[in-house]
Amino acid sequence: MAAPSYLIVIGTSAGGMPALTRLVAQLPATLPAAVLVVQHLAPDSTGQPLVHRLSMHTSLHCQLAVDQTPLQAGTLYLAPPDRHLLTHEDRILVTKGPHENNYRPAADALFRSAAVAFDSHVIGVVLTGMLHDGTAGLDFVKRCGGTAVVQDPADAEFASMPESALRHVAVDYVVPMSQMGALLMDLVGQQVSKPEHRPHIPHDLQLEAAIAERVMGTVDEVSEIGHQVPLTCPGCGGNLWEVNEGSVLRFRCHTGHAYTAEALLESSQQEMEETLWVALRMMEERKNLLSNMASHGEGYWSAQQEERIEEIKRHINRLREFLLSGSENTSSAARKV
User: Fold this and answer.
1) Is 90 labeled as catalytic in the residue annotation?
2) Domain segments of the chain: what residues?
3) Does the domain made of 6-188 have the CATH classification 3.40.50.180?
4) Is 67 a catalytic residue?
């Protein structure tokens, strides 16, 4: 097989496998591009059944990505569970680097490394899925001269990922799945050889790609691409830097964790809820202890404990009401998207 003229990088999550099978069925074995796919998977799952399923619907050669494999045209590489799929020059890298947007594999990590390696010969594609992985990745692709394609949210089983991309990035094409294969074939057929001089690749993206390849960066490196802010990394508890460049508000820590603002907000919400549930448990235990103390006393002292019990009951009820209300709102928002 020949080396690819283009990379088509795809990010998807919920509803991704049905969408992928429809897409790859439209792509021929003569495709002059390599197709790299991040499908969010459980860390303890196996990707081989998904590779088999995809291969039943396409003439592309489908395989799980293996570290240091040369990229080849007409081949689809699926990111293994709990591993980032990256590219470096004309090879695949598979790493267990820090999570990005709370995901590993992450579409953003794949899109960035592909954009740095193949510049304008990268086509980034965001399909159906929840939340917002791939949004910053499309911005990386655009900044390196590549093309951004998004599944029409009305056509997606889960519209959240496509809608997030459309809100934040100047997307080039928005198409339903039935038209996407023809569009990709047209895009990779526009130019079959790389130009003599590469487009300018932003220094910050080169540095971020290098950090991801080495798994961990340094404080000095992260300080080159952002400024420190009074926020804490949910992944490791370290300091966060706000990234200076790009159209998507993003944050990084020096160990390699990366977040869009939305992903960071979601992480902080989860941490806050966990903390409040612990507080509720402790207050319940305090109430039980006070009740036990009151039952073993008498007179004024016992009456004091009863007053304290009534006060803590009020706090418990308010906190429980707040937590349950927040859970209901979260579930309602999830149903809407």
Assistant:
1) no
2) 6-188, 216-256, 269-336
3) yes
4) no
